[in-house]
Amino acid sequence: MSTDEQVLDSPEGWVADHIRRYVATGGVEGHEWQPGVFTLLLTTRGRRSGKLRRTALIYGRDGDDYLVVASQGGAPQHPSWYLNLRDEPEAQVQVGAEAFTVRARTAEPAERARMWPTMTAIWPAYNEYQSKTDREIPVVVLQRR
């Protein structure tokens, strides 16, 4: 990913505001979104548009890896960022002030079973989101390159 390309932020009002504050302050504002709940910024390449897309996601850790959940609030379809990662698994991440490249993969079933409680301990609503949809909500592993 070229760092000189324009990045389109998530269009949702409060999410876009969160991202702007996060970027402007180098993560000083926004990294800890709520007490004990931390977010990272994920930049993917649009699978159809080819444009860079950035969104803020709650994350957890599994060793050196970062974990994010493709919940979309329990919607019946996967979020766009997840579909983008399936087509192009290399992405950019900003955690606080630190930015780096990752390779994304969907957790295998046994991994997901182990990782899901880690993520629901951080954001218990993921269990509610899972109960609202027939799809299995993916846990995505972001491995630093």
Automatic annotation (TrEMBL):
Reactions the enzyme catalyzes: oxidized coenzyme F420-(gamma-L-Glu)(n) + a quinol + H(+) = reduced coenzyme F420-(gamma-L-Glu)(n) + a quinone
Gene3D superfamilies, A to Z: Electron Transport, Fmn-binding Protein, Chain A
InterPro entries xref list: F420H2_quin_Rdtase (IPR004378), Split_barrel_FMN-bd (IPR012349)
Gene Ontology terms: cellular component: plasma membrane
Top-rank lineage group of the source organism: Bacteria
GO molecular function, one term: oxidoreductase activity
PANTHER family documented for this protein: F420H(2)-DEPENDENT QUINONE REDUCTASE RV1261C
Family statement: Belongs to the F420H(2)-dependent quinone reductase family.
Protein name: Deazaflavin-dependent oxidoreductase, nitroreductase family
